[in-house]
Fold [protein-PII] uridylyltransferase.
Amino acid sequence: MQLKKILIQNNQQLQQDFTNGIAIKQLLHKRSDLIDSILIDLWQQNKLADTHIASLVAVGGYGRREMHPASDIDLLILLNAEPDTQEQALLSDFITTLWDLGLEIGQSVRTLDECIEEAEKDLTIITNLMES
């Protein structure tokens, strides 16, 4: 898989940059940019960009562009409406592909109404959304 090779090569380069004393903030941003690139590519490959059923939102440390090497990638898949069976399959394939790449994913799949409902129950959810 081409993306896995890109991920490995870039992670090795980031490790070398760290060893060479590159500023941590710069490395965190570079790793976030790498993850952005991979996610956008996969979103398009899995035809999710064409469907307009959902938006991909970076949250947590990833949303703040603070991607440490051991950090999981916190994602919100924000749905326009409840997905049909075919759309569910596209979303499932997308998430499975991320796992297959070896990425540690923390994902939520919600509609806007569900986000509001969950945020009313849990302050950390609204904080994550505001920071993204």
Notes: Helices lie at 2-19, 24-45, 48-51, 60-63, 85-100, 112-121, 123-131. Residues 3 and 38 are 7 Å apart (CA to CA). Residues 2-131 form a domain with the Beta Polymerase; domain 2 fold (CATH 3.30.460.10).
